Amino acid sequence: MGNGAFQRVPLVFTGRSGGRSLWLVVLLAILGAALCFVVFATGRIAGTRAEYALRDRALAAFPLAADSLKGEIEKQRMIPLVLARDDAVQEMLRSPSTANEAALDEKLRAIARDAGSSILYIINPEGVAVAASNAGEPTSFVGSDYRFRHYFTEAMADSAAMQYALGTVSARPGLYLSSRVDGPEGPLGVVVVKVELDRVESRWLESGFVVFTTDERGVVLATSVPQWRFGTLSPLSAKEKQTARDRLQLPGVTFEPVPLSRRGDNLVTATPESRSAGFFAVSQDLGKAVPGWRMSLLIPADTEISSAVMTARVTTLLALVLVGFVIFIIVRRRRAARQRQEVLVLLNAELEHRVELRRAELQSSNAALAGEIAERENAEARVRRLRDELAQANRLSILGQITAGVAHEINQPVAAIRTYAENAARLLGIGRSQETAENLTSIVAMTGRIGTITETLRSFSRRASGSMGPILADDAIDGALSLLSGRIRDSGVTIERKRIDPSPIVMASRMRLEQILVNLLQNALDALKGQPEPRVEIALAENGEMVAISLRDNGPGLAPDIRRSLFMPFVTNKEKGLGLGLVISQEIARELGGSLRHDDAGHGRGTSFTVELRRAA
């Protein structure tokens, strides 16, 4: 009986254990498969995103590499075009002489040196070089026959040509740019400049990318990998090789394919150095700047893509492990939470009672706080209104100070109008209608001038709307000088403007900016009274995203006590001043998103103020 009981218990236990183990194995297999799929998919997504990032980098770097090549070629292309119209070149080709040749050689040598050209030379209609920048050197081109060169024959036929080839003397590759010299009797010859693209290729190499150009047959020309030069992107037929040899004039080159193969839409495998690596490639035609050329840029991709994939997979794996651990913790805590539930019910009842009491207290506090906020907002609104009214009063005060000068400006055209009117009446009486019409035209011009002056005053006197927008800094300076033109002329002060071409555009309200400048100009004019050779210098400067307008006078400067409290209200060194002009101007500058500061160079050496404003996008 004991043996029977002993035998039945293991049988039941073994069946249950086997069923649970099977389900556990199946569950673990499903979870493992799901985990592998998620990790693999995450790696694929990360690799795709890394390719997108590489594409963005390549598209951003491509214009820089292309512009470097285009800029060098366009700069050199102008040299033969200009020399083809040069009188000395045409005279040399019409009437060759030793003296003309020596002078022209020296001229070509100077131009080549200044422009960074490799060689600059002139060929007569027979194809013989008659002048060159390397004349007198062992490698001189003078006397060499270049009738076999395409850049000569095509320029003679089409006025201009371009050819990439090896030099017959230097055996160095370069781009030949030529332009025909035309005279009244027909073509006189060809001017040729050879451009060796070493500097461009060096900049490509320094960028860390692989950059190269190919012609219409896929032959590599300019490149940051010298061993790829005159290789091809794909095998050429015998006819294509012969055409390439003739065009590039490379009789001994076999045009072997470069070690580059595609492995996707934009991914390639290349061997620019000793070992193969993956790159992300972008290609684009160079257009009219270099007809028939196509540029390719390769960015190293293997490390970045593999790093992104590995990082994503490891991160996903760790995240899934962490999620599993969190789920385990949550399950355990839910068990503990059930045990604490009864305790929490009692605590919640007590807490709700206390919350109700606290809510009543907070409602009372919120009501009091709302009243204080409303009172503060009303006070701030009053401050803003008072500040705007103070700025308007300052602007009207400025207008009162410059009224006499403006009246003088208006009196001149009024007197001229009267004179023209009297002359028109007399001329009309004697039948001289043409001259009468001219006098009436002059009267119209004078009224326009009066209208301009009054419009300036009216615009300046309006209450500023506060609206900001892009304006030319020079326009605001011109407006301020126009308002004070009469006073400036009567005071004998010299205004010196230092401009920037083109004038910078700032974000500001023109009326408010003019108010700042008029305040600063009036202070400078007051400080220069009685000074020998009074002068005010107005300068513009650009500093990153900011534009600075500086006004400096050569007056006596400011006393130390005035400088220390310069931007405090009611601080002034004028007998009738209120001490509010600089305070208002500084506040306006802050509202415009800029600043106003005092840049005094030192006591006795004048006074300088600078207004800084944001540059307009």
TrEMBL record:
It is a multi-pass membrane protein. Gene3D superfamilies: 1.10.287.130, 6.10.250.3020, Histidine kinase-like ATPase, C-terminal domain, PAS domain. Pfam families: HATPase_c, HisKA. Residues 369-396 form a coiled coil. The keyword Transferase applies. Its main location: membrane. It is found in: Cell membrane. InterPro entries: HATPase_C_sf, HATPase_dom, His_kinase_dom, HisK_dim/P_dom, HisK_dim/P_sf, Sensor-like_sf, Sig_transdc_His_kin-like_C, Sig_transdc_His_kinase_DctB. It comes from the Bacteria. GO terms for molecular function: ATP binding; phosphorelay sensor kinase activity. It is an enzyme of class 2 (transferase). Its EC number is 2.7.13.3. It catalyses: ATP + protein L-histidine = ADP + protein N-phospho-L-histidine. Residues 405-617 form the Histidine kinase domain. GO terms for cellular component: plasma membrane. SMART domains: HATPase_c (SM00387), HisKA (SM00388). The chain crosses the membrane at residues 21-41, 310-331. Keywords: ATP-binding, Cell membrane, Coiled coil, Kinase, Membrane, Nucleotide-binding, Phosphoprotein, Transferase, Transmembrane, Transmembrane helix, Two-component regulatory system. PANTHER family: C4-DICARBOXYLATE TRANSPORT SENSOR PROTEIN DCTB, SENSOR HISTIDINE KINASE. This is histidine kinase.
